[in-house]
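Listing S7. Sequence submitted for prediction.
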Amino acid sequence: MGAGSNVICNMSNTLNGSLEGKVWFITGASVGLGRELAELLLARGASVVATARRTELLAELAKAYPETALVLGLDVTRSEQVDAAVAAATQRFGKIDVLVNNAGYGMVGAVEESDETEYRPMFETNVFGLIRMTQAVLPQMRTRKSGTIVNLSSIGGLVATPGFGMYNGTKFALEGISEALAHEVKPLGIEVMIVEPGPFRTDFLARGDMAAAKRIADYDATAGKLREYAEQQNGRQPGDPKKAVAAIVKAVETGNPPLHLLLGAGGIPRLQGKIDALLKDVADWRDTTVGADFPAGQ
């Protein structure tokens, strides 16, 4: 075995609490939190359907866990691939207990700087791909009256940042879809959890094509700052990916996961700041808000 396989084996020796019998389906499992999650689950005895566009990056997992790891090629923007992957997973393991919609990526640039050829594919993956996967897995979960859907959002799905507008748009959409879905499927025995990580030390900022090609000097003091952040902070983020995926598994295994799981201390003040600002707007403009209705009784 190579060095990576040794790491996997060491994880298996040190982690407690078997997940044997559980079947997790993970999109975007080749790198980042998806990869960390797949390794953790396999080490704890779960069966894992690890999917990615580049399956060669998952060959090591398949070799290390031939009985419990199923590696499948999957582009979530392709409906036929989604259906085929769900069918293959169900044929191999008989069911899918947990769907983790992790596939996604970001881009940096002011809204005006962002070209449709840059942001539309991101929406196809981050939003429409998640919808396709969810719709493909839900029928079997409804039949069994059990299952969990974990949707990877971001603190950027709760609080917008200059320079992340298009990415924020995909994650805000994910939040709305997930909240509605949670209410729809809760009576059917299905749980939904939205995971909102802050900056974690993954490959998220490592994409060479992350920044919008167009740059407008007027936005240097706002969106431009995020371009600098993306260039300088890759590999220096405070979040520990191993702790993040352990938290996700712990929450799912409770059987009653939170609707929102914020990960990383830095997200708390950012979210609190937004809540405070929102409540202030509501209070300051309350008379205008109330005055927009017809008079009572009309």
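Caption to Listing S7: primary sequence and predicted structure tokens for the chain studied. The two ends are 76 Å apart (CA to CA). The mean pLDDT is 91.
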